[in-house]
Write a structure and sequence with these properties.
Gyrase A, domain 2, 7-stranded antiparallel beta sheet, alpha+beta, 33% strand, 363 residues, Elongation Factor Tu (Ef-tu), domain 3, 20 strands, 6-stranded mixed beta sheet, disordered N terminus, 2 domains
Length: 363
């Protein structure tokens, strides 16, 4: 007879990351789906007018890095494109992390509290960026931790969302401002136009153990929107979120990152800083990011944009999402000369240029 007490016991295994995220999405009443931007939460299509009045969406494709320690700000200041040492509590900033060649590895929206500096980014990049940053901590009193598995993000928008935030004990902050309570952090982001109405937006970070209760509160009175709708609002805001297909492809100015306040040209050195500065001050910029619409299949991030005459590659898709009115809206990077002289295509579809919410500087 076998002595079962001496047999090796099975060790409980955590579900794979995708399965775990999919189960989380289902608990919010959404259908999980994976695309090149990460895990998505899908709800039935909603009327654009209802979305403009107030919406909420889970964002399983967002991740979070926490950098804490006495020298966290000083360390990140030496690594990122924007000022971290002088970032006050209550303010958010766009940040980029570059390779030594000045190419953006990731973009972030960042803020700080009395414990740490927090960097929200595309979840598929979070662990790789954590490892890379950690390689350069050396003797600095700082530690980089990936909090993506313990934090859930929600995107909120429209006038009705402010009241829901207040019910959660968080005053709705203005654009690029931060409000928090004991466990929730809310970042105000630039507004976009939805159904001809200005739609303020907020990014809400919630501990996973509170996520279902918070969603239950948000879901009453706000329209449940798919996470791809949030990505559409990012496209409309003209601010890039890099993913594996676009990481290390662009100097910040190619993505208009300095125009949205993501680069500080007066701060000290960081990886790639010399190339970024040279791109700014020596010669005319030859590449920029543009906003467009197409009627056709959604192109992949990093896929080619080509001239309609001759089919020559001139740029890449940066961020794309289904548009509420049908078709696809996207941000694409391109040679300025190609945009000015020829019609462009992504996939088999012609791009119809739209206006970005900010102007390009005069040449």
């Amino acid at each position: 007879m076998t002595d079962t007490a001496t047999q090796p016991q099975a060790v409980p295994q955590s579900p794979p990351a995708d399965e775990r995220l999919a189960n989380l999405v289902r608990r919010f009443g959404a259908q999980p789906a994976v695309d090149p931007y990460g895990m998505q939460a899908q709800f039935p299509p909603a009327a654009t007018q209802a979305l403009a009045e107030g919406f909420a969406t889970p964002l399983p494709d967002f991740g979070l890095l926490c950098v804490d320690g006495d020298e966290a700000g000083k360390f990140l200041h030496s690594q990122l494109t924007n000022d971290v040492e002088h970032l006050p509590q209550g303010e958010a900033r766009w940040y980029g992390y570059c390779s030594p060649k000045g190419r953006l590895l990731s973009t972030f929206v960042g803020w700080r509290d009395d414990r740490a500096v927090w960097l929200a980014l595309a979840r598929p990049l979070a662990e790789a960026i954590r490892k890379r940053l950690s390689m350069f901590v050396l003797r600095a009193k700082a530690k980089v931790v990936d909090r993506s598995d313990t934090t859930v993000f929600f995107g909120l928008g429209g006038a009705g969302a402010a009241a829901k935030l207040a019910a959660l004990g968080v005053a709705a902050p203005g654009a690029m401002a931060v409000a928090s309570n004991d466990s929730l952090a809310c970042v105000g982001l630039p507004a976009v136009t939805v159904a001809a109405r200005e739609c303020p937006r907020w990014l809400l970070a919630v501990p996973e153990e509170r996520a279902e209760a918070v969603w239950a509160e948000l879901h009453v009175g706000l329209t449940a929107a798919s996470s791809t709708f949030w990505r559409w609002t990012e496209v409309q805001a003209g601010v890039p979120r890099l993913v594996p297909g676009t990481s290390e492809q662009f100097v910040p100015q190619m993505l208009n990152f300095e125009l949205v306040g993501g680069v500080n040209f007066k701060k000290g050195c960081y990886p790639g800083q010399e190339i970024v500065a040279r791109s700014q001050y020596l010669g005319k910029l030859k590449r920029r990011m543009f906003l467009a619409h197409l009627d056709g299949a959604e192109p992949l991030p990093g896929s080619d944009v080509v001239t309609e005459t001759g089919g020559q590659p001139c740029g890449q898709v940066v961020l794309a999402a289904p548009a509420p009115q049908g078709g696809v809206d996207l941000l694409f990077e391109s040679q300025i000369a190609a945009v000015e002289s020829d019609a462009l295509q992504a996939g088999a579809s012609t791009l119809a240029r739209q206006d970005l919410p900010y102007p390009f500087p005069a040449a």
